[in-house]
From TrEMBL:
It comes from Dietzia aurantiaca. PROSITE patterns: RIESKE (PS51296). The keyword Acyltransferase does not apply. The chain crosses the membrane at residues 56-77, 89-112, 162-186. It is found in: Cell membrane. Keywords: 2Fe-2S, Cell membrane, Disulfide bond, Electron transport, Iron, Iron-sulfur, Membrane, Metal-binding, Oxidoreductase, Respiratory chain, Transmembrane, Transmembrane helix, Transport. Iron-sulfur subunit of the cytochrome bc1 complex, an essential component of the respiratory electron transport chain required for ATP synthesis. The bc1 complex catalyzes the oxidation of menaquinol and the reduction of cytochrome c in the respiratory chain. The bc1 complex operates through a Q-cycle mechanism that couples electron transfer to generation of the proton gradient that drives ATP synthesis. Residues 284-378 form the Rieske domain. Pfam families: QcrA_N, Rieske. Its main location: membrane. This is Cytochrome bc1 complex Rieske iron-sulfur subunit. CDD domains: Rieske (cd03467). It is a multi-pass membrane protein.
Amino acid sequence: MSETPKNPSPADLDRMSDEELVRLGTELDEVDVKFREARWPEGVETRAEKRAARTVTIWFALSALFGLAFAAVYIFWPWEHKGEGEAGHALYTAYTPLLGLTIGLSILFLGFGAVQFTKKFVPEEISVQTRHDGPSSDVDRRTIVAELNDSWKSSTLGRRKVMGGFLGASVGLIGLSAILPLGGMIKNPWKRGPMTVAGDGTLHTTGWTLASDTRPDGLPPEKVYLGRDTAKVFPDGHPPAGQGRLERIHIDDLSTGALESVFPLPASAIGNFTEDMHSIHGTRNAVMLIRFRPEDAARVIKRKGQENFNYGDLYAFSKICTHLGCPTSLYEQQTHRFLCPCHQSQFDALEYAKPVFGPAARALPQLPIAVDNEGYLVANGDFIEPVGPAFWERRS
Ligand code: FES
C-alpha cells in the first residue's frame, strides 16, 4: 500500500482508494484508532454468522409486521363510537389499545434488531479524537463520505438484502405511523351520512336540523327540546336504562340575566344516555340560551327575517364562533358581549350577536325557539344559515 500523502491534491484524491481515503480521514481528523476488529472473518460465512443474521432479520421482520398491523388497524378497524350495550362496542373499545400495542411492538422490535445488529455485525472499534472548531474542508468532506461508505461495507448490510429490506420496511412503516394519523383529518365535507343528533356529517347541518321541516333526508321534523347538560356521572360508568344526561329546560328554569349552554334533545331520545353524549359531542350543536333582563330586552335590535326567533326575553345563539369555530362561551353582562377566547372576537348580544370587535365577520346564527304546551323550551325549526366559520359554498 502506498504512503498516504498528508496534503493531497485533487489528483491525489482521485487516485486514492476508499481504504486510503479512510486512513487519510482518520489521520486528518486526529482520530487515533486504538482497536478495530471485524465481528466475523471475511470471505466465509460461518454458521454462527448465519444464525446471527437470521436473528436480526427476524427482529426487523417482526417490527415491519407490527408496523403493517398498525396501519391495517388504523385504516380498517371499526373506530366509530359505539356506546355501552350497542353492537360493536367491544370492537370500538379495542381500537385505541390495539393502535398502541401494534406501534409499541413495532418500535420495540426495531430497537431489539438495531441493538443486535450493532453487537453482531458492526466492527468493534475504539477510537479517540481531539476536538477542534472550524468549517469542514474539501478534504474532510471527501474523506467523511469515504468513511461512511466504509462503514456501510464493513457492516455487511449492503449484501444482506433480506435483512436490509426488512430494516427499510420497518423504518418506513414506523415513519408512516407518524403520518397516518393525519388521515383522520381528511374528510369529504359533502359526504352525507344519516341524519342524527349530531347532524348528517356535512357543514350545513347540526342536531337542530332534526327540527327543520325541510330536513335533508326528507323525513318530517322532530320535536327537539333545548337540553341542559346535567353532567351526570354514574358510579360504574353504566347509566341505568331510561336515564339520560340531558334534561329538558322549563321556561321558568332560567333566571333573569342568566346564560346556559344547551344541546339538541329530540323527544324520541329522552332518557338515552348514548344519544345525549352524541348530541353533546356534535361539533356544531352547542347553543347559548340567554334570558335578558327586562331593561335589556327592551333594547334588543333584531335581525331582519329573525324577528320571531326569540321567545319573550329568551334568545338562543350558536356558541360556535364564526371566525374559526372556538366556543364563544364568555358573556360579559354589563356590556352584553359574547367574547371568543381564541382571537378575542366580540359579539353584541343585544344586536343579534353581530361582531363588534376582532376577526369574526359574521353574526352568531340565532336558533328559533318556542315553548311547548307543557312549558318546555323547544327549537322552532333549524338555524336559517350554517353555523361556525365560513366555507367555500357559504353565501352569507
Ligand atoms: S375563533 Fe373566535 S375569534 Fe377566532
